[in-house]
Fold each of these.
Amino acid sequence: MFGKDIISEVDYTVESCHKVGDAVKLMENLEVSELAVVKEDIYLGLVSMDVIIDLDAGLQLSDIPNLELRRDSIDHGDHVLHIYQKFIASGLSLIPVLDGNLQLKGGISRSELFIHLGKLFNLIDPGSLIVLKLDRRDYSLGEIGRIVEQENTSILSSLISGVPDSQQIYVSLKLNSFDIQGVIQAFERFDYEVVAYFTEESYEDFLADRYNEFINFLEI
């Protein structure tokens, strides 16, 4: 999944001839903190809400002396995880997408990117979730996979996150089945600690409750 595949259908641009008040209102409507400033389809940079919020609403962007514009952008061929790293490093809510000729192709908002990441990690596909806790030195995805497969179940995706102030890790397994009692019992036979599991009834609640934890994991 690359930048060109996840360009938003939303227009996150504002013309340099537009007024400050128009730009502020557009940011509020689109729920972003930046907009891509363009002049005759040429990308000039990103203008931030913080930079213009206290200016005269009737002032044109092009008439603002020394208007601070950020030059952040991504290439349309960048991988989605590289794009996520760019969001984390920049702290932006929006990043423009440029092609090989540095022409603006569109933009991607942080919230839209999270949706694509959820799809990439199969978080929205039907299935259940098991969370294991184990010592980092004992982690073997091959062994974990064999235990799951012996119960006629498949791992759709896995995420690893550290336990704070510990040498242990959490291993979250997205499985393709809601009937996971056999898998849980198998892990317990092999002395794995199953700290949580979520089936059809509770999975959506888990995603809502643990969304921020997933985002924190990606920032590691």
Amino acid sequence: MHLEVGGVLFPVNQLGPDSAIVEATAAHSPGPARLLVAVDDTLTVRQAFLPEGIPPGPFRTRLALV
């Protein structure tokens, strides 16, 4: 499972109903994102929005699926 922000993929360690724990190497401002989930060779892509952006490091960030 990954979160794509501005063409960069970040691993998602944990996903909740309105948040995700993401390992980011740099901070990202609020904006659009995509959640990519691969299960049994099937890729599901969901559009998302990061209302608070992503701080660097392994942090929980708010995520809104659209």
Amino acid sequence: MSRETPLLTDKKLWQAMRSSMALPVAFSPMEFAPWLLTDGGVKENLPVDLAAELGATSALVVDVSPPMPPLKHDNFMHIGLRALDIIGQESNDWTTKIKVDIIQPNVAKINTLDFNKLDEAIAAGYKAGYDYLKQHDMSKKG
């Protein structure tokens, strides 16, 4: 592992998505020789600058970062996740000049390890996406 950021332009979307979810300590890394990839959110949570490098002139991103409440837990996993959240939120400060629209589902009550709340997370994402389309007059008519 290194700080290098490979562009997985020759991989399937699911492979790139899975490698971006390889959270150190919790989920195994993905191997694409010569790389062993872990969560890109640690270094670059929403890789808008990389999209710009590949020629994008605009980006529509979904930010599912929950607001950070006061840390009440003192176990290893919660402290580690908080550190990653802080680093990830700082990485959202883009330097690119491309147009960025952000969809932010209401996931304030869902944390990274709440796998039992998957249906709630999907519903929040669907609602946020629908609201975005409606606000921008892009929703399906009729």
Amino acid sequence: MNIRHLNHLLSLIEEIKVIGKNTEVDGVICHVMGVVRYGRELRLLVLQYDEVFHQSNEEEETELDYEDIPDNNRAILCARLRNDARSPFQWTRSVCIGTEKFESQSSETKRLSVQDFECVLLLSEFLRKGWKPEGIDYQSIDKLFLTSMELVGDYSEIPAFGDNPPIRFNIGPCSTANLVEQPVDLTINGEYPEKIWFSNSKTGEKHWVQINRVYLLDMWEEIEKTFSNPEIKEKMAPEEFDKAKANIIRNFSQICPRGMYLPVIEYECEEGISLNFYTERYLDSKPARGNSATATGFICRPDKPFGVLGLQLKACIIEEPVPADTRCIKAELFQYNSIITAGDILLE
């Protein structure tokens, strides 16, 4: 960091319009700072403080002072689910500021730090414009999160909103991950006559799943089918095709060696819910070097649209290879993901 770079960061900020409105969404204190123009791009800025998130972090840090730090995949995945800060504006589709309406197609949320000079300079510029961050001005900077929303359009100046304009955020459907950790025995090509009930480990809320079948998928066969498709070959130059195929084969070999298979669970459950299964062996083992308990994210579509209950059939791949003679898998229904439709957020 040098003075020239600081001057460059300042030069990017061409115009600022302070708004300064507070609200609280699901326990998260939110403060709409205002709008900043970078060239011909507008961004709406919202500061957030999540007391529950910080209390949870502090409690966990205290526990780790007295206990051994777990280093298996289960601990890493659980920590991610439990310690994610909430961002009420992450799924904003549009914003009305006064009489002006803006579409928002992208946003980012990051934790502030006194070492992040770009954010510190931005806060300083807002303060110079008369910004009064009431309600969060006493919080440590490194406990605040900043959401920056791009307002779609090409702007030579920030529109005139007037003084103290009302603001309405139109929030789209959002996905939340919920911890379960329920053991389940999966029998390859077995029968599952009854629903399995499971609970949200935090709230106790109950849900169900009807497993239709569990089978082993030969991903290498699927890869060969894909690259044998003449339509794919026609869309790529021969050199590009060969390079793409070689890269996929090399990368997939590290995930699932030839001769091994990936388990697939086809199931029905409530609308707006999807499930994640892991093997107990994977959850209780240490993460492989270079891997921090991340999933590759394979997508598998069932052959049939509907299951035995007449509901949409869904599928989940367990991303741990098993041999062809596998008959039973000790697994866990580890988490469920639910789609929530949020209401508008209005600041008058």
